[in-house]
Amino acid sequence: MLSIAVWAVCAALVAQAVAVAGWDGVLLAPIPLLICVLVWATLWRPRVILRPDAVRVRNVFSTADVPMAQIADVRLGAMLRLRLHDGRVLTAWNAPGVGKDDHRDRLARMQAQERSARGGSRAAGRGRAQGAGRSTWSDRLVADQLASPSYAVVEAWQAWRAQHGESAAASAAAPDVTRAPNTLVLLVLAAAGVLAALRVVL
């Protein structure tokens, strides 16, 4: 993973500085430490946790507990987004979305698939061969969504709605969305930032 690779590089830099300059090399540690903390806070720690009746979205600075009854729609595109009944949209930071690729590469792959399908089924008739195996933009989008790990949130929300019905989702008695700051992350970021600033100034 990218986070582990960055941490390994930072640790190697500090180890090399100590090997060259002795323990004075530790004075260079605050900068790699800040990089490690930023990677931990933005890439490693954010996550989406599924519960039977709620979704916990842990972003960089805050964590939101979203009851299934408060979710009006789950959108999976470049990022995972939860649209609530009150109109708010909650974006899950760093949650796997639909992969992006170059539209020209995608078009070339689609055309190659169509030519292969036509060539493999010419014996069955040219007309049928042209329609066979033809993929569309919407087909590719659906396939990308199904392949994303975040599609588990879509499935869990759809299963909840199927079990409880839309009346439960629209009920005024549904639990509210709660949000709390990630105090630990804020403190660690502040401490690492202060150390790095002192290293630059002093």
TrEMBL record:
InterPro entries: CFP-6_PH (IPR019692). The chain crosses the membrane at residues 27-44, 184-201. It comes from Brachybacterium equifaecis. It holds the Pfam family bPH_6. Keywords: Membrane, Transmembrane, Transmembrane helix. This is PH domain-containing protein. Residues 118-135 have a biased composition (Low complexity). Residues 111-136 are annotated as: Disordered. Residues 45-111 form the Low molecular weight protein antigen 6 PH domain.
